[in-house]
Specification:
Oligomer: single chain
Number of helices: 18
CATH architecture of one domain: Roll
Structural class: alpha/beta
Shape: globular
């Protein structure tokens, strides 16, 4: 039954604190340089040296790592603030390479992107808290895959303390296809101005949009000109009432691929079905931005079909980046799980009034949109678990066994659901990845060095090495021993600026 609902749930969501010092860190004396920090007696875990894990010290200066000492007693640098990491673990800052910052979880699209006077007062508080919520779970770098409101990203970057933020600019939908199809015809071209023109649909494309301005090359150039580091496009035939949507052919994808290569941009494709991921492989994309929860004609099979295994082998062999985004399913499933809103972490990452609204009848509007009439919650959960959740877990398990090029991305929020909350969604995704078959080492690499390399950020991010940006996370437990370690954060550094975890929680939770 979940298969019938799951694609109704994928409604496209984009249509419609001050920095506090870390209490555990001594304040510098007048003779100390405040921009030098010496983290000492700490176990250093960096993905390029997983065979060389030992205690050591790290010196931060002017926002960068300038010294890394391992396995030896090192003398404290003059004028540095000392942070003792005794019994703790230092890792690189985490990277979530699939977020959508402009969308508010659980909010109706027409309210989310409507006039300010129609929005609840707590939305302003949500956006103020948003950077800190990601930092609360250790995410010091984000990639927004489809810019729909540049002002939100600009405001995010102006926050007193925030993760580094990169983006893919405005995405490249095929004319009148997904996700343009969710907007009314009279508005969709304004909402998605960087679409790819389809001559076969000339009669349904407003005359002011000229084919020469919407070629693959022109669309990619627009992303490059906006400062994007990646290109996001789609292969989606649709679902529920929006089926048989127009999709690009391999010739169009080849032109996008050529333009992305020439401009040095990473090519990403929304693809959550067997057909779509085969298309993405045939088109030589760099990143597949979803797990495969839709097997098409093979949906009812319980064993992984050889046809799918063949595509997964190609993904592995060609080292295509793979974002499982299992929390897309879990985020929708949350409406039928009575325990979800009781998680202790939720009041830490969203305003109290927002959580209160989620618990109200009004706040559960999306459940009424996606639930089948009179279907018990237990039946819905079973439908999820035996359908799309099972399928995506099987695919991820197969790829994990092949040591595929996993990238960590959450698609937060993937739909107008309260089941995808900033920061927390990443921690829950890690738990799902482990259940699906990824080792703790694979998860650690995916959320650090794999993301940094794929998005060409590894000269600055992803490892603890001299010269890298001082984006670091101090944990009480090792992430190579337990996925729960990612919920034992003590301190987060962003460009050398430290914040205790408690200081990053919502004001109402303190």
């Amino acid at each position: 039954m979940a298969d019938k609902w799951i694609f109704r749930m994928r409604i496209f969501p984009f249509l419609f604190a001050s920095f506090l010092p870390v209490a555990a860190i001594a304040q510098p004396s007048p003779n100390q340089a405040p921009d030098r920090t010496w983290i000492t007696d700490v176990t250093i875990i960096s993905p390029e040296k997983l065979d060389h894990i030992e205690k050591g010290s790290v010196l931060i200066e002017n926002g960068h790592i300038v010294r890394v000492e391992r396995g030896q007693e090192a003398k404290k640098p003059a004028g540095a603030t000392v942070v003792s990491g005794e019994g703790q673990f230092l890792i690189p800052g985490l990277i979530d390479s699939h977020v959508h910052l402009a969308s508010v979880p659980g909010m109706r699209p027409e309210v989310n992107f409507g006039p300010a006077e129609a929005k609840p007062a707590w939305i302003k508080e949500y956006f103020k808290q948003l950077p800190r919520s990601y930092l609360y779970f250790g995410y010091t770098t984000l990639v927004d895959l489809a810019v729909v409101d540049r002002r939100v990203l600009d405001d995010f970057r102006q926050a007193p303390l925030h993760p580094d933020l990169y983006d893919c600019g405005e995405s490249l939908p095929f004319a009148n296809g997904y996700p343009m199809s969710f907007a009314p015809p009279e508005a969709r071209f304004q909402l998605f101005p960087n679409f790819i023109y389809d001559p076969n649909q000339a009669s349904s494309i407003p005359a002011q949009y000229k084919p020469r301005d919407h070629t693959p090359a022109a669309a990619v150039a627009a992303v490059k000109g906006s400062g994007g580091i990646c290109v996001k496009t789609y292969f989606e035939r649709g679902f529920a009432g929006d089926r048989n949507l127009p999709v690009m052919g391999l010739d169009v994808l080849a032109a996008v691929r050529k333009a992305a290569t020439q401009t040095g941009l990473v090519l990403m494709m929304h693809a959550n079905s067997f057909e779509a991921q085969k298309f993405a492989v045939d088109g030589h994309v760099d990143v597949i931005a979803h797990g495969m929860w839709n097997w098409g004609d093979f949906d009812k099979q319980t064993d992984l079909p050889p046809e799918i295994a063949k595509v997964l082998n190609q993904i592995t062999e060609e080292k295509i980046g793979y974002q499982p985004t299992i929390q897309v399913m879990q985020g929708l499933r949350a409406y039928f799980d009575p325990e979800y809103l009781n998680m202790n972490a939720i009041p830490k990452v969203i305003p109290a009034e927002m959580l209160k609204w989620f618990n109200s009848s009004q706040g559960k509007w999306f459940k009424r949109e996606i639930a089948e009439a009179n279907a018990p919650d237990a039946a819905v959960l079973q439908g999820f678990d035996h359908g799309p959740v099972r399928r995506v877990h099987q695919v991820v398990a197969y790829l994990a066994g092949k040591d595929a090029n996993f990238l960590f991305g959450t698609d937060t929020p993937s739909a107008p659901t309260y089941g995808n909350l900033p920061g927390l969604n990443g921690y829950l995704e890690m738990q799902q990845l482990q259940r699906a078959g990824l080792s703790l080492e694979q998860i650690f690499r995916a959320v650090t060095i794999n993301n940094a390399r794929e998005f060409k950020l590894d000269s600055q991010l992803g490892t603890i090495e001299r010269g890298k940006t001082a984006n670091l996370v101090l944990l009480k437990k090792s992430p190579l021993e337990s996925v729960e370690a990612y919920d034992t954060i003590v301190t987060v550094w962003v460009h050398g600026r430290a914040a205790s975890r408690d200081s990053l929680a919502t004001d109402s939770s303190k």
